[in-house]
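Next up, a chain.

===
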Amino acid sequence: MSADIPAHCYRNPVNWLAWGFGSGLSPWAPGTCGTVVGVVVYMALMALPLGTYLLVVLLMAVFGVWLCTHTANQLGVHDHGSIVWDEIVGVLVALVAAPAGWLWILAGFCLFRLFDIWKPWPISWLDSHVEGGLGIMLDDLLAGVYAAVLLQITSLFLLT
């Protein structure tokens, strides 16, 4: 158990979702651990038709606003490091319509983590100016969009 998380929070299953099924409780690189969970979720969803995949990701993002708000309020911290639902959904955005193969999944993973950590503008602005679950989700969704665009551009040059 993390010393800065109140004991009662561990009994709430909603928090376990926000913590990426516990991956966000890792003492090392919780955001990266949450992103790994996102890749596992991606592998379960990648065979869906594109429209269905996008709908699932949209629903997860909307749900994530509520989920992250709830857990942040329980923890008393705006964007506690253990909250990784945003990374899970962000990497799903990064991998939208990704070409088949492990190399592309790994590239999407790495690009998402790069943009999520680096936070180029306007991701950095969103991260510091938008509060609550919406703020927690938005910067990762935009990092996912940046990663998806770069992944698609790269695939155009390498696969055509």
